[in-house]
Design goal:
heterodimer, A: about 270 residues, alpha/beta, 10 strands, globular, B: globular
């Protein structure tokens, strides 16, 4: 069994009567590029917020790199990088100032921060805006800066909440290249995204959350096999002597829709819409 | 303004907007914080109500006096007061004025007339309009009691005068809004505004300083500007009523027509702005900036070297100071204590010897200046996550304890207070005389007591009632209503304690006693601050979700 980077046991979060995350048991091995999927409001962002210390769970345990998050929050946070939902940027700093700030908050010395900031700004193609405040950056530039800030301390695990949302193809390519090089060096990436094509291309393992509950977990092939098995179980048994149907090569989108029941939604139509 | 007809669906749209506004209000009352905000708004409304009713009584009495004495033209004085307060108050106190973001409306199929009407109705019941209308009605009553036949005509004139004021107010605000939409123009406007306020504050002292020698010159100046004054809305309104009393029909109708012409002119100016907004003008920050593509990589940036401070402390300290230095409104706030000392230096004293009262009691200048410096900085200290906005998430995700974040912020704010106190001290030395050693020490000891108390309360309020503020925008520096109320109570208590300490010292005739008492209180305050810091950390962790939600609001 590989080293477990992220593990949750009966992780639950309630907002009043509403259960946003319900008894989630998640296992992410170290070095995996892990995609965490789900429809809107399924509990993805709530889960990522709990795993990064932005939200307290109502019940359950979370372990990051073998450390209990509740009891070792500071030690855990030193090992992880986060691009949260709102990017958490400080708008009235420049990009260089912000990276410097973040690096020093993670305990890096001034020289190291300075060197890494310059490299990151160059890598992210943000060097052309040395005096521009972050508030004046475009959305894509802000995303790139947020990712740069999340990796400046060399985290072992990176949590990314919708990193490709609102990012153009060029910036998206830069981000993907960087994430893949991190994986190659042994880091673990936990990513939520609605862009299923990107997830399919990048992620080795996936989990799908629906209405707060974890409904599927495994590699893409394992999920594909699971969906195929479910479909086969629903079909009448083949006639004696007949050839078994060839296994379908489902895309992630098709797998996702079959698991969360979105296909039924797509079939419906509005009577008044022309 | 041609084609001002409403589309078929306009009534439904107005009803929908009214309904959603009502629902937003009702929904805001679901939370404890929302209810507390409502209570604070009621208190603020009561304060405005007292001002409005007090002013209305004075206006009615004055108008009755002017009309019954046959000096109807003097009504212009009252109308100028109303006109200036109506136009200046919303600019000076934008926190009390509804400033709608019309871009939200443009995605709906609203016709231009509907859009125009909605923009006019939004904020129509702000304090300036309510008080202005109340005062005009009071003047009408005063006129009606003094000369009943004049009542109807005066009411009609004041109705047009009110429309002129409402339209002019919208014109001013829509143009200011246009400037506030972009960072650079926003900050330029901020500087111009504050320069205006400073120059305005100097008019009184300068008039007082030269009134003995310059009275004839001022009288000549007033006589010269009187014809111009009669061409402006308050003067025209007063003339219309005066001509009515003389039964000069042509003159009174002419004056009313001129007032109407002003209303049309302001309507046309407003139309230019609103039409541009309706056509979807883009004033975003990004389109305004000039791209400085040089092709050269920026130099390595190492941050500030602050010996003795751990890395995270230094990082937060630098970030806080950079935010302050990039805020025009905040920089002005920091300069204000010295400006106030300057104004008091040149304010005429009651003794008639010239110079403000602080000239006659210079030992009070340093304690008063220092107290004022601390008072104005409470706006910053009591909402210390406000400028971070969505960035507050980073503090919860970073490997730094919240108590250290709070301490670093407190350290930065304490440094600002210290610089302020030094500036005030230098200002007092330069403008008055160096304060006595006993007074200086007592003042510093008093600050050592008041600062940790304010920091403790500030930390708790910053967590319990944070509000996103924009350091680059005028009028959006205010903390939440709940924080303002709590701050008012704590400042009253602190000033009360300081007054008691000084009274005790005065009773025993020994200023050193105040220093000793303040130092004892300071030691207690530091201990309490330390205890509060631990409490504040747990409180922040418990409330992190609410804090992030509040500070991440669009």
């Amino acid at each position: 069994m590989a080293i477990v980077a992220i593990s949750t046991e009966h992780l639950t979060r309630r907002f009043g009567q509403f259960v946003a995350v319900d008894d989630v048991n998640l296992q992410v091995a170290a070095g995996q590029f892990f995609g965490f999927l789900g429809p809107n409001g399924a509990g993805k962002s709530t889960t990522i917020k709990m795993l990064t210390g932005l939200l307290a769970p109502s019940a359950g345990r979370m372990q990051i790199l073998g450390m209990d998050l509740t009891g070792n929050a500071i030690d855990v946070k030193r090992q992880i990088g986060v691009v949260p939902e709102g990017m958490a940027l400080f708008g009235r700093l420049t990009g260089a100032e912000y990276l410097n700030f973040v690096g020093r908050m993670y305990g890096l010395d001034r020289d190291t921060v300075s060197k890494r900031s310059a490299e990151l700004l160059e890598f992210m193609q943000l060097v052309d805006q040395p005096k521009t405040l972050i508030t004046d950056y475009s959305h894509g530039m802000q995303k790139k800066l947020a990712l740069a800030a999340a990796v400046i301390h060399g985290p072992k695990i990176l949590f990314l909440d919708e990193p490709f949302e609102g990012v153009d193809a060029i910036a998206s390519g830069t981000l993907k290249a960087m994430l893949q090089s991190m994986i190659a060096r042994g880091a673990t990436i936990f990513l939520t995204s609605h862009v299923l094509e990107i997830v399919e291309r990048l992620c080795s393992h996936l989990a799908i959350i629906h209405r707060g509950r974890l409904v599927a977990q495994g590699s893409l092939d394992e999920l594909r096999a699971g969906v195929a098995a479910q479909a086969a179980a629903a079909l009448p048994p083949p006639a004696p002597g007949a050839e078994a149907p060839a296994g379908e090569k489902l895309t992630l989108e098709e797998i996702f829709l079959r698991i969360v029941g979105g296909a039924r939604q797509a079939d419906r139509e509005l009577s008044w819409l022309g | 303004m041609a084609g001002l007809t409403f589309s078929r669906e306009a009534h439904g749209q107005f009803a929908a907007i009214a309904r959603v506004r009502w629902q937003l209000f009702i929904n805001s009352l679901r939370t404890l914080r929302g209810r507390f905000e409502m209570v604070s708004r009621i208190f603020i409304a009561l304060a405005f109500g007292i001002v409005g009713l007090g002013g209305a009584t004075g206006m009615a009495a004055a108008s009755y006096f002017f009309v019954s004495q046959g000096k109807i033209e003097l009504l212009a004085i009252l109308l100028w007061i109303i006109f200036l307060s109506w136009q200046l108050f919303p600019v000076m106190a934008t926190a009390f004025t509804e400033n709608v973001d019309s871009s939200n409306l443009l995605r709906f199929p609203l016709s231009y007339p509907s859009f125009f009407l909605i923009r006019m109705v939004y904020g129509a019941f702000d304090p300036a309009t309510a008080i202005g209308c109340l005062w005009l009605f009071a003047i009408s009553l005063g006129i009606g009691i003094a000369d009943p036949p004049l009542f109807l005509w005066a009411t009609m004139v004041f109705l047009v005068f009110a429309i002129v004021n409402i339209l002019l107010g919208r014109v001013i605000f829509s143009w200011i809004e246009r400037w506030l939409a972009q960072r650079r123009t926003r900050e330029i406007l901020g500087v111009l505004f504050f320069l205006f306020i400073i120059s305005f504050q100097f008019i009184g002292p300068l008039m007082g300083r030269y009134d003995k020698r310059g009275a004839p010159a001022i009288a000549r100046f007033v006589a010269q500007i009187l014809p111009i004054e009669r061409l402006l809305p308050p003067g025209i309104a007063a003339t219309a009523i005066a001509q009515s009393a003389r039964q000069a029909l042509v003159a009174m109708l002419g004056a009313l027509s001129m007032l109407g012409a002003y209303a049309l002119a302001f309507l046309a100016l407003l139309n230019i702005r609103l039409r541009a907004q309706f056509l979807g003008e883009n004033l975003s920050e990004s389109t305004a900036q000039k791209r400085s593509i040089t092709g050269k990589p920026c130099g390595r940036y190492a941050g500030w070297a602050l010996p003795g401070l751990p890395g995270p402390f230094a990082a937060i300290f630098e970030k806080e100071i950079r935010y302050l230095l990039r805020s025009g409104p905040m920089l002005f706030t920091l300069v204000m204590p010295v400006v106030i000392l300057l104004i008091f230096r040149f304010t005429p004293g009651n003794s008639g010897k010239g110079g403000g009262f602080l000239v006659h009691a210079p030992d009070l200048a340093f304690p008063m200046g220092a107290a004022y410096a601390l008072l104005i900085l409470t706006n910053l200290i009591y909402n210390n996550f406000g400028p971070d906005a969505v960035g507050v998430q980073f503090f919860f995700a970073s490997p730094v304890r919240l108590r250290e974040v709070l301490m670093a912020k407190n350290l930065a704010h304490s440094a600002v207070v210290s610089v302020e106190i030094v500036l005030v001290y230098l200002g007092v030395c330069f403008l008055y005389r160096p304060p006595a050693a006993g007074v200086t020490l007592a003042t510093v000891a008093g600050i050592l007591f008041a600062l940790p108390v304010n920091l403790s309360i500030g930390n708790l309020l910053s967590i319990s009632s944070p509000k996103k503020i924009d350091f680059g925008t005028m009028g959006r520096q205010k903390a939440s209503g709940a924080t303002q109320l709590a701050a008012f109570g704590s400042q009253a208590a602190l000033f009360g304690i300081a007054a008691v300490v000084f009274l005790i010292a005065r009773y025993f005739g020994e200023i050193w006693l105040a220093t000793i008492l303040f130092l004892i209180l300071a030691a207690i305050a530091f201990f309490v601050y330390w205890l509060f810091l631990n409490r504040a950390e747990q409180m922040a962790l418990d409330r992190r979700e609410a804090m992030i939600a509040e500070l991440s609001r669009a």
